[in-house]
Amino acid sequence: MNNTGTMVSELLPSWLTDAANRLRGITGFVTVHPNGGDPRTLAFSRYEHVTRVTSLALSLSEDRRLPREEVLLLSWLHDINRWPFSHNSERGNFDHADDIERFVAGRLPTTAVRQAVGIARKDVTGLHQTARAVLLSDIATGLLEDTLFTITGLNLSPSELPNDALDLLRLPVGDYSFLEELQHLYTLLNQEKDVSRYTRDFNSLVFRSTRKFLTDHGFLNADPLESERFREIQSSLRSDYLEQKIFPLNNEKVCHGSMIRRAIVDPVISRIGVEAAALLTRWTEVDMVAYALREHLATEETMAALAPTLDYVQRFEPNRCFM
Questions:
Q1: Is the model's pTM score more than 0.90?
Q2: Closest CA to 41 of 33, 53, 49
Q3: CA distances, 22 to each of 139, 279, 307 (Å)
Q4: CB of 246 within 8 A of CB of 146?
């Protein structure tokens, strides 16, 4: 699992490796907006999300005897063309699934592109077994990592999260050794500011947690994507839990998502117009902020105010702190 970065450089086409590395500067769970000067934001990049998806998908490929090279390709390809600030910039402006074919521009077989588009749309129709393993990995990883980020990165106590959701996720928050691991991760990121060690250990925890989630629900050795039970679990965790309990904290209170959209995204998209898809699938958040400043679409003071408030819970809601 820990050699995913090496596999990216060795097995992907060079243009796709370069595009994958751009994702280090693209929002995952928390914006990596650079003006705050806080290195902790790098732990939340979309690059690391895809790394975790890839690790789980490669593990499933071993269980199911699927081609590893194809798993690696589809894992990275399905999320490769995200805009800076991702959902806050793309919502209502851009569909990255629809854009994948343009982004690839004939550099890969049409069949691979179609599979990647299906994964990006979370549409199982027409997906072959390898693509289905990647989609399952993407869904499961997203469900687990957001909760673990909220506790270890944003310092929200597990007691503030609904027990039924934690049970569905199979996170043993009542287990002392598990809580110790969460505390270790919190310390690495928020006290020692050791982003590389936090990322390594966090990715390991997500990998083990997603495997446990799939195993406990009977999804590991089956293909659950079209089962009613899997859809019910996914829907419940997404709409009743993540969208209600997690996203308002990380996207608005910590990341100022609505303000980012008003202050950076809307002015930049209005200025660049029809060039948006081509430009923003090459830019990082650093590039987008630099453009907004250079074109006098925003001020340094505005950008500074939009830096993520990673310590929001500790500063403003201390009674909800994990540590």
A1: yes
A2: 33
A3: 22, 13, 20
A4: yes
